[in-house]
Design brief:
By secondary structure, the chain is of the alpha/beta class. It contains 18 helices and 14 strands.
Length: 423
Amino acid sequence: MIKNILLEQKNRQEALLKETYIPRYQTAKLERMVDANLIKVVLGPRRAGKSFFATHTFKPGEAAYVNFDDENLMKVTDYSEIIKNALVVYGNTKYLLLDEVQNIPHWELLVNRLHREGYNLLVTGSNSKLLSKELATHLTGRHLPIELLPFSFQEFLTYKNFTADTPERMTTQTKAQLLRHMDSFMKNGGFPELIIHELKPETYLAPLIDSLLFKDVIKRYKLRKPDHIYNLETSLLNNVTKEFTFERLAHTLGINSWATVVKYLAALEEAYLLVMLSRYSHKTASRLKSPKKAYMIDNGLVTAKSVQLSKDTGRLMENVVFTELVKRGLRPNIELFYYKTRNDKEIDFVLKKGVTVNELIQVGYDTSSQEVSERESKALIEARGELGAEKLTVLTWDEQKEVKKENVTIRFVPLWEWLTGQP
């Protein structure tokens, strides 16, 4: 039985290898480390393209593939038998690709043993806890973590066979097409299957959210009040990028304890449904106590479930910027924060490098009016005075200019230009 299951999986992998592959923002990192004596760990939300990425990048056609998300295979408790049959199906290879490995109990023991036996391993998982607690505990110093989120805007354009030129060389027609792509990406997000098959977030992602909540949160953590989780996720989807406190959420949703809200939010983060961002402070204790902001790992999740944000372009833009910063390697609450000045002016993003704040970013859809431009500039200048950042940026829908204020230059950059690395 095991051999037949693995043969079916192999056939699906061979079909995937025949499909067009769009290099991902993590492709070069994995390619450099394919033969390193480290366990490669690819983590990210379900349907973000982890299996496709791994299949095309990790010894394609050579690595033995085992998908532990297969319900038939999950019934097997003798993992040694699974690996033995995989080597029969694929031949005597030293490369093993283990997909959704978090589905099996004590997966880390299996992975450790195979690594000790000399196998070159790549494992994937849809739970960020693998990346933090479990990996740090069981695979210390022996693993390479690679986080893969849905398509970036640049990857989206690559799939659409569209090349963004510099603003000076772009025709009016090309620019209009680019902004249409930007609008589509901002509303529908970057889940590969949704883009490839031109699906609507409401029909593709809404059922995925419900499935993730049940399978990766409620069932995994044996939560007794599933309605609380659904209500919490819905509330945050409809208030994405807005400040909240654990106490206020508990009161609003009728949850008995703010500590329970903290536990639920941690589970939602581990399932790659959202990320919480802290307010920046020089003091660690102040960061921990500050109100948080919730961001979704993809804008399509917002559109799929939100009943309030369909026309709130500014907040959708802000969520796109957050996910792009994460894809560029900034770690939330370590190198990436939001901020409130002493006069309560909000800065959307604070970017740190080591102990130094090196950039402040504001996001605004319509900055064409003098009033809005002044407001954003004043907030950045005030925050710069408190934090010392030299680089000040306002990301706009399509306005480009420089404003000099108090001997400081503030760059207004179109979002599409920033996302495609044109500046």
